[in-house]
Amino acid sequence: MSTHEVAALEAGSQLAGEEIVNDFSMVVATVNGSGSQTSNMAIIRALFRMGLPISGKNLFPSNIQGLPTWFTIRVSADGFVARRDATEILVAMNKATLVEDLQSLVPNGVCFHPDDFEPGLLARPDITYYPMPVQQLVREAAPPKEMRDYIANMVYVGVVANILRIDLGEIRHALETHFQGKAKAVAMNMDVVESAAAWAETNLTKRDPYCVRRDQQTEGLILVDGNTAAALGAVYGGVGFAAWYPITPASSLAEALGDYLPSLRTDPETGKATYSIIQAEDELAAIGMAIGAGWVGARAMTSTSGPGISLMAEFSGLAFFAEVPVVIWDIQRMGPSTGLPTRTSQGDIMFVRFLGHGDTRQVMLLPGSPAECFEFGWRAFDLAERLQTPVFVMSDLDLGMNLWMSEPFVFPDKPMDRGKVLTADDLERLGSFARYRDIDGDGIPYRTLPGNEHPLSPYLARGTGHSEEAVYSERPDDWEANMERLLRKHTNSRTILPRPVIDLSAGAEIGLIGFGTTDPAIMEARQRLLGKGVDTSYLRLRAVPFVEDVGEFIEEHDRVYVIEMNSDGQMRQLLQLEYPELAARVRSLRRNNGLPLTARWITDNLLAAEEI
Question: Of 446, 463, 495, which residue sits at a domain end?
Answer without folding.
Answer: 495
